[in-house]
Amino acid sequence: MAFFLFIFVSAFLITVICISSLPGALEVSASKAAKVGSDELFDKVLDLRTWADWLPWLILEPDCPLESSENPSAIERNYCWDGKLVGAGTLTHKQIDRPTYIEETLSLTRPLKSESKVIFDFREVKDGTLICWTMLVAYPAYLDP
Known about the structure:
The chain is α+β, with helices and mostly antiparallel strands and 145 residues long. It has a single domain, classed as START domain (Alpha-D-Glucose-1,6-Bisphosphate, Chain A, domain 4). 22% of the residues lie in helices and 45% in strands. The chain has three helices and seven strands. The chain has helices at 2-20, 38-46, 51-54, and strands at 23-34, 66-68, 78-82, 88-97, 101-110, 114-125, 128-140. A hairpin with a 3-residue loop joins β5 and β6 (114-125).
């Protein structure tokens, strides 16, 4: 009897631990209309060398070391940073559908390790382009509120 109770309790605890470690997900989105053609805006976002010109977090650390791979507008090319205030990470192009869609992987290595999917969606609208930015963040289910 004690053996079966031990097996039952062990199986229950293992199930609870496995379920609590399953990832949850968070989606954050923002949109902005720009009075610029979609091709021009798409090219600016696609070229990782231009990111230092418009990334808001670099205000915290303007001298943060930045590096982009050769041909930074191609799939599997990346942009890396390693700063004291902004941490360290890599942004890598995963899918490019010109001129409407860019998908990237954001890998943070410091101060916290995480991996997220970043999507830029471009749509022609009257007088310009609507750019939609989405970030999909995975995290352990036990952090789910």
